[in-house]
Amino acid sequence: MKIDFHIHVKLSKKTNFEIEHFNSMINEAKAHGLDAITLTEHFNTHRFEDVYGTLDKMYPCNNHYYNVDGFKLFTGMEVDVAEGGHILVSGPKAKLLEVRAVLEDHLTADRFIGLERLFELCHPRGLMVIGGHPYRESNHLYHIDKELLKRFDAFDLNGKDLHEIGIQENIAKVLTLGAELGVPVIAGSDAHQMFQVGCVYNQFDGDFETVAELKEAIRSGAYKRVITPSLDLQVRAANYVKKLLKKKVEVVV
Questions:
Q1: pTM (two decimals)
Q2: Are 134 and 141 in contact (CB under 8 A)?
């Protein structure tokens, strides 16, 4: 199985969910040979409920993933925490949406939930918790107490950061952090736009039906991270097109 653990299906937080944009992301993932992605739309994106509400009407879901014409779309979200980082949460849809309901009171920067409290909500529900882009200047995690960081199921080797920080520098930083804390590192493109899809992904020998199975495979190290030679070009192109599109898109409230 080839899977990307960090991918968005909206152009930005402020835009509406559009099925045409969603289809472009899925089709691009398939074109790059991916078998699955984890949907990690921002928990406080404009009309979050439209994302899962629309997918519920269009595709069968077994509470673990949507079957998009044979392509697996595992359920998840990206959560801002009070410490300043971004956290990727994934797992059974019903449990995920229970956590999202609690987070309804924590949607703005002055009310973001603390990381320890987020762990307390997620782990008992069987959700996987990944520390997103731990060295991103604007939303880093490395400064947080190490005992708390050790509770992550994985850290995110992020496609955008590999481009902006530098591939070798970012790899060294994230892998060193993971090794020091005993936390695995997985790859996520952080794509919001089709050109960035496939710039990084993870390759597993087996096929998986649940996030719990994926988490166990990650813990055992039964996977490899893949960084494509075209990563820098893909991220540059995606950033450029995203800026152009955001100028043209209006939010319909």
A1: 0.95
A2: yes
H or E element at residue 155: strand 154-158
- Contact predicate 42/8, CB 8 Å: yes
Q: Please determine, for residue 156, whether its predicted confidence score (pLDDT) is greater than 80.
A: yes
Mean pLDDT score of the chain: 95
Cβ neighbours of residue 115 under 8 Å, at least 6 residues apart? 81, 82, 83, 85, 87, 144, 148
DSSP designation for 186 = E
**What percent of the residues of the chain are helix, what percent strand, and what percent coil, each to the nearest 5?**
40, 25, 35
Residues 7 and 25 sit within 8 Å (Cβ to Cβ): yes
Sorted by sequence, the CB contacts under 8 Å of residue 157 that are 6+ apart come out as: 170, 171, 174, 175, 185, 186, 187, 188, 200, 225
Residue owning tokens 């400064």: 143
pLDDT digits (tens, 9 = 90+) for 43-59: 999 999 999 999 999 99
CA distance 60 to 57: 8
Residues in the chain: 253
